Amino acid sequence: MIMPSCLLTRRAFLNSTVAGAAAMNQSLCASPIDALLSGHRMKDIEIRTVSLPWPRDVGRNAVKGKHGHGPIKRRVCVLHTDKGATGWGEMQGGFGKVQRFLDSIKGRTVAELIDPATGIRSETHHAIDIPLHDLAGVILDQPVWAMTGVKQPHLTKVYSGMIYFDDLDPEEQPAGIDKVLENCRWDYEYGYRQFKVKIGRGNKWMPAAAGLQRDIDVVNAIHKAFPDVDILVDGNNGFTVETMIGFLEGIPDVPLFWIEEPFHETVVDWNRLSDFLQAHGRAETLRADGEAKPDFQALEALQKNHAINVRLNDICGYGFTKWRQQITPLSKEGILASPHTWGSALKTVYTAHLIGAYGNAPTIEGVTTADSDVDFGENRIVQGRLHPSGQPGFGLSLPTPS
Fold first, then answer.
1. CB-based contacts of 128: which residues, under 8 Å, 6+ apart?
2. What is the pTM of this model?
3. Strand (E) or helix (H) holding 321
């Protein structure tokens, strides 16, 4: 990937304004960081759209129909300060929700809105959590992962989250398992060394027994074709304990990296599955949940005995700041973190910076984009690991307005 063109603009801005802002505010603030952020006031808030298409048509999963080509238009929030600094990112909620509080932040200092060491200062600003982190990083001339004081980012594996039921389409002449293997080959050549494979065809799209067998055949075929790749499976809550055990019995030679959301989380079901894994040589297989309509009470109960050991709450829906608050306590419990990112390649980058700061992740969900009008800069896959940018903020550059 090429370096983002607007980083030159950001660098020029930093060189011309940071020293002056620090000098003016040092005597008024508790620290140089506070001085820098207090020297900038919110001036303008802009809503724009970016294109983040996926590299191929994505098919069905256990519960949803064809996903298509991804977010051709995704709305983002761009924050501008009176000193010329700009930060941007995905926003939570619709434009109306964001618009309701935009006027209330105009004129306020960036320091009033975000503490770079911990995150946004008020849940009121959850909708612009990501843009505020990017803005703080730009003003401080730091990547987001470095705001905690780490000198080098924690690196971890990254998996392709784009292996769906492409064998079932087109409906008039299904492509078969070879199509799934073709997609795996594309992802392998792109740089992934982990594949998350969707399973659960028998929940909705095929007769139960035939669908379960197809899941088994697909995973066995992928393992045979790519023996050096870690395989993760995701049931999208399309299984029962019994059908999940049946699936596992059909892939005895596949060393699964993790199992994700086989059924909606309940203490009884996850305990049964965890016991089965322990008794059948799969104690090391990670057990991940918490993405879709999470039952937080059940999740916390399951964490206590490690029936699940990876939390998946969405990086934006749950919140970047909430994740910052949650990840260290999870680590102390021995629970890993891998925030859900599906849908947007931007979310994969946000998660890479979160994990870069705190570690405690077994892998990151990769969402690939092709022909995007966003420049991802130094955020890239190197030898199967996702390296977050060392440029200010998230190191992502918006296209120049036409």
1. 77, 79, 89, 91, 98, 120
2. 0.91
3. helix 320-333
Asked whether residue 276 carries a pLDDT value surpassing 60, the answer given is yes
Query: How do residues 348-396 score in pLDDT, each as one tens digit?
Result: 999 999 999 999 999 999 999 998 999 999 999 999 999 999 999 999 9
Provide the pLDDT confidence category of residue 324 given band limits of 50, 70 and 90: very high
Give the residue from 196, 216, 191, 197 showing the smallest Cα distance to 206: 216
Tokens of 112: 């009033």
With H, G, I as helix, E, B as strand and everything else as coil, classify residue 143: strand
* pLDDT single digits (tens) 184-224: 999 999 999 999 999 999 999 999 999 999 999 999 999 99
Query: Which of 7, 100, 91 is closest to 49 using CA atoms?
Result: 91
Any idea what DSSP says for residue 293? S
Q: Which pair of structure tokens corresponds to residue 171?
A: 């409906």
* Mean pLDDT, the chain, whole residue set: 91
Beta-carbon contacts of residue 99 (< 8 Å; ≥ 6 apart): none
Which of 45, 106, 1 lies closest to 397, judged by CA?
1
Tell me if residue 350 falls in helix, strand or coil: helix
- Distance separating alpha carbons of residues 291 and 306, to the nearest angstrom: 17
Residue 129 to residue 282: CA distance in whole angstroms: 38
Task: Specify the 3-state DSSP secondary structure of 7.
Answer: helix
Tokens of 39: 């020297």
CA 144 to chain centre: 15
Q: What are phi and psi of 221, to 5 degrees?
A: -65, -40
Span 23-41, mean pLDDT? Answer: 69
Are the C-beta atoms of residues 194 and 230 closer than 8 Å to each other? yes
Q: Is the peptide bond before 170 cis (omega within 30 degrees of 0)?
A: yes
The candidate with the shortest Cα–Cα distance to 200, out of 216, 184, 187, is 216
In three-state form (DSSP H/G/I as H, E/B as E, the rest C), the secondary structure along 20-72 is HHHHHHHHHCCCHHHHHHHCCEEEEEEEEEECCCCCCCECCCCCCCCCECCCC
Question: d(Cα 39, Cα 246) in Å, to the nearest integer?
Answer: 61
CA distance 283 to 157: 20
β-strand pairing of 385-387 with 380-382: antiparallel
Per-residue confidence (pLDDT) for residue 285, from 0 to 100? 98
- Strand, helix or coil for residue 393: strand
* Cα atoms found within 13 Å of the Cα of residue 228, Cβ hemisphere only: 7
Phi, psi of 197 (to 5 degrees): -105, 125
